Amino acid sequence: MHNEPLAYRMRPHTIDEIAGQQHVIGSDTALYKMIKNGHVPSMLLYGDPGVGKTSLAFAIAGTTKLPFIALNATKAGKKDVEDVVADARLSGKVILFLDEIHRFNKLQQDTLLPHVENGSIILIGATTENPFHDVNPAIRSRCGEIKQLKRLTTEDVDMLLQRALQDKEKGLGQTKIDLTDDQRKKIADAANGDARKALTLLESTVFASFEQNGVTVIEDSILNSLIDRVGVFGDKKGSHFYNLLSALQKSVRGSDTDAALYYLAHLLENGDLVAVSRRLLVMSYEDIGLANPSVGPQVLAAIQAAERLGLPEARIPLANAIVLMCLSEKSNSAYAALDAAISSIHQGKTGDIPSHLKDTHYTGASELGHGGYIYPHNHKIGTFGGWVKQNYLPENLIGTQFYKPIEAGEERRLAAIYHRIEKFKKE
Fold first, then answer.
1. What is the pTM of this model?
2. What is the CATH architecture of 239-326?
3. Strands, E, within 172-328: which ranges?
């Protein structure tokens, strides 16, 4: 019986054995052709856990037959880096696979980077975090290739499972296993594009099953219980977590209720109720806004209920909030107007506050020329309240329009009032 986990044993030895990732290492890509010709550029591999970053690095080394050293940036010290440099001096060229590269510290970089620059060390860094956010620019600048690996399709994972079941040397091929096609595909689906998770689940299922007449029989009850224990991929506060938040907001903004509920479910399975609640409250004002002003307080009430209930019951008020926002009229005019005003200030478009708007609650204000403000409430205008024509913007900004109303939902009424006041200004 093998001591290493199945997922470790089934790592590909060459790039031709890589499952999926055709956009990165397919036979028609430049990277594939370079590696086949013996040239390996330094590169960063970015993607979710289990998509094959480590497997690709090992496969590149196996294809080129170059010396290969694997380190983890969370554990490697200066001595480890110096050993890699020494190996590079002896052999002429070494592939260094550095996992969790975004945790590489400056001291390690200073030791390693000159040798990456002169080509004696080929750096293959792997990270689950966005390299443009979390990888030091000094590392990025020395990596000619930054490749984002995608999650494997169910078909890719199913192919890996079949390969593991048939492989007699590295896989489970020496064991007679009664696993139906439907059960195998259920494993592939449960893995959610994570090859390591799929192979681990397969191995656990086989070990948890009983042998009858020399055949290991997989029972649905065993398989289902193990699938229920499979965690949701993506760490809290990692890149994938923020991608989920982004996808949730964009789905609500696009009024896709099913997609929004799917991403909410994913986020709640990660368990960060605070971050989810904060994003929902922002969305209620950013994307619904003046088109339906009642949504903000309703979402706040749902969030407060969720916080008081806690998970899993918190999902109930939050689901209501998501559906409400998806199907509500939408407007971003208010915050877009504020952003336009902020941009104007940053561009230097400022001016002196009109004298009649300046503070007059002190002795001597009139001597400074402050005063002359007309109180709008004393000038009734229909059912609106009060309005009087006077300038409020600095003189050099008079006529500037930041707010551009949207004819949606409740804002349609507000837009009519806005246009009416603008007409009064011109009369």
1. 0.59
2. Up-down Bundle (1.20)
3. 177-178, 210-212, 215-217
Q: Are 59 and 140 in contact (CB under 8 A)?
A: no
HSE, CB side, 13 Å, CA atoms: give it for residue 192: 10
pLDDT of 376-409, one tens digit each?
999 988 888 889 999 999 988 988 999 999 999 9
DSSP string, 23-70: HHH-TTSHHHHHHHTT----EEEE--TTSSHHHHHHHHHHHHT--EEE
Residue 272 to residue 265: CA distance in whole angstroms: 11
Backbone angles phi, psi at 269, to 5 degrees: -65, -25
Query: Mutual orientation of helices 195-208 and 220-228 as an angle, nearest 10°?
Result: 140
Tell the CATH superfamily of the 21-148 domain.
Answer: P-loop containing nucleotide triphosphate hydrolases (3.40.50.300)
pLDDT band at 304 (very low <50, low <70, confident <90, very high): very high
Structure token digits, residue 335: 């915050």
Q: For residues 299 and 228, which has the higher predicted lDDT (pLDDT)?
A: 299
pLDDT in tens, 89-127: 877 788 889 998 888 877 777 778 888 888 888 899 998
